[in-house]
Amino acid sequence: MTETTSRADIVVIGAGHAGGEVASRIRQGGFAGSIALIGEEPYLPYHRPPLSKAFLAGQTSVEQLLIRSKGSYEKAKIDWYPSTVVERIDREAHRLRLASGDWFEYGKLVLATGGRPRRLTLPGSDLKGLHYMRGIADVDALRLEFVPGKRLIIVGGGYIGLEVASVAINAGLDVEVVEVASRVLARVTGPELSAFYETTHKAAGVKLRLSTVVDGFEPSAMQSDRVGAVRCGDGAMIPADLVLVAVGLIPNVELAQAAGLAIGNGIKVDELGRTLDPDIYAVGDCTEFPLPCMDGERLRLESVPSAIEQARAVASLINGVPNPYDLIPWFWSDQYNLKLQSIGLHRGHDQVVIRQPTRAEGFVAFYLKEGRVIAADCVNAILEFNVAKRLVAENIHIDANILANPETNLKTLASQVHQDG
Ligand code: FAD
C-alpha cells in the first residue's frame, strides 16, 4: 500500500469541543489558508455535557448534540477527517504520522486532544458490565443496560457520577453511589453544597456509601465474565448488575510528550495558548495554563466555557491579534430539576455565606476570602448567579452580613458594587 501525504496550513488534532471551536474561530477571524480538523471519533464536534444528562435519558439525538452542522464546516472550508488517529508529531519536518500510515503536513498545529476516563486496574476490572463515560459510544453501550430494576453501582460521587445517578433513578434502576471521600463532590465544592446534593439524592432513592474504597469486582454467579458485585475495602460486597466508573479524567498528553513539549498536569501553554514550539498551540481539557483570576496560578480545567475561551485566544493569536485568556471559570450541572451554576474556584476562601435563594428548592453559597467573593454555587438561582458573576469579577470588598441578609436586594447590590468599582 502506498502512503499518501496531505497538507494544511492549520491542522487541529482532536475534533472535540475545543478543536471544533478553534478551527471555526480561526476562519471567522479572517484566516485565508487551509484548515484541517482531525478526530479519532466518527462524529463532528459535539456537546459532551448532555451525555450524562438528556442524552443518557434518551431526550436528545446525536444530531442535536452536534455543535455545528456539517454544512457550516464545509461553508467555512474546514476539512474534517473523522475516525482518523494521529500517532506521532514530527516537529522538525512539520508533519504528523497517522495510524493509517499516511502523513499530514502542517504549517501550524493546534493540539485539542482532550482526555480519557481514568480506568481502574483492580481485580475484576475487565469484567463485562463495567462502563466509563466520555463519548457517545460509551453512552450508547450504557443505555443498552439501562433496564428498570437493574442494580447500578456508580463508583465516584463527582458531577458525572451524580448526574448519571439522577437519570438512572428516574429510569427505575436501583442506584448506589460509592465514594472514597467523606462527602460527594468533595474535589470541586464545599461541604454545604455536598450536603445539599446528598440530601437530594437520598430523597430520590439513591443510596450513598461514603468514605468507602472499592477494592475490586466479583463475577456474577450466572455469568462468569460479567460483573456481579462490587467489593469494598471494608469487606462489604454490593450486588451489581452494571457498574459505572466515574473517577476522573486523564489528559491526552502522550503525543505532545513524545514530541518533547513541556508537560505538567496537561500540555503546558501560556495565556495565549502557546506551547514551547512557536508553531504548536494547545487548547481544552488537555492543557495546563495560567489563570489570570488566580494570579497566574497554573492549572488544568475540564469545562466547556474554558475550552471555548482558550480556542478564542489561540484563534485571535493566529489571526495576528493576540488577546490572552480572560475568563473566570464557571461550570454547570443538571441533576433532577436542579440546575447548578458555579462561578470561580473554591480555593482558599475563609468564609461561606449561605443565602436563602429566591426559589424554595434552590441553594446559594458565596465563598469569600478576606471579605471578597471569590466563588459561588447557585442552584436554581439564576439571579443570584448573575450577581455572583459580577461580584467575583469586580473583586470588591463586601459585607458578609449584607450578602446573607434576605432583605438585601441582590440586583441593587450588584449595580451599587459596579458603580462604586
Ligand atoms: P474533548 O471534547 O474530549 O475532545 C478531544 C477529542 O480529541 C476527542 O474527540 C478525542 O477522540 C480526540 N483525540 C484525542 N487524541 C487524538 C488523536 N491522537 N488523534 C485524533 N483525535 C484525537 N463541562 C461543562 O462545562 N459542563 C458540564 O456540565 C459538563 N458535563 C460533562 C459531562 C460528561 C459526561 C463529560 C464527559 C464531560 C462534561 N463536561 C462538562 C466537560 C466538557 O465536555 C469538556 O470540558 C470538553 O468536552 C472539553 O473539550 P476538549 O475539546 O478539550 O476535549
Protein traits:
single chain, 421 residues, alpha/beta, FAD/NAD(P)-binding domain, Enolase-like, domain 1, 3 domains, 7-stranded mixed β-sheet, 5-stranded parallel β-sheet, 29% strand, globular, binds flavin-adenine dinucleotide
Outline the structure in words.
With 421 residues, this protein is an alpha/beta fold. The protein has helices spanning 17-28, 62-65, 70-75, 136-144, 159-170, 191-204, 254-258, 304-318, 382-394, 400-404, 410-420; strands at 5-13, 35-38, 78-81, 86-90, 95-98, 103-111, 115-117, 130-131, 151-155, 174-178, 207-209, 214-219, 227-232, 237-239, 242-245, 249-251, 267-268, 280-282, 287-291, 297-299, 330-335, 338-344, 351-355, 363-369, 372-379. Strands 1, 2, 3, 4, 5, 6 and 18 form a seven-stranded mixed β-sheet that branches. Strands 8-15-9-10-11 form a five-stranded parallel β-sheet. A five-stranded antiparallel β-sheet has the order 21-22-25-24-23. A hairpin with a 4-residue loop joins strand 13 and strand 14. The longest helix is centred in the C-terminal third of the chain and has 15 residues, at 304-318. The radius of gyration is 23 Å and the shape is globular. The mean pLDDT is 95. It binds flavin-adenine dinucleotide.
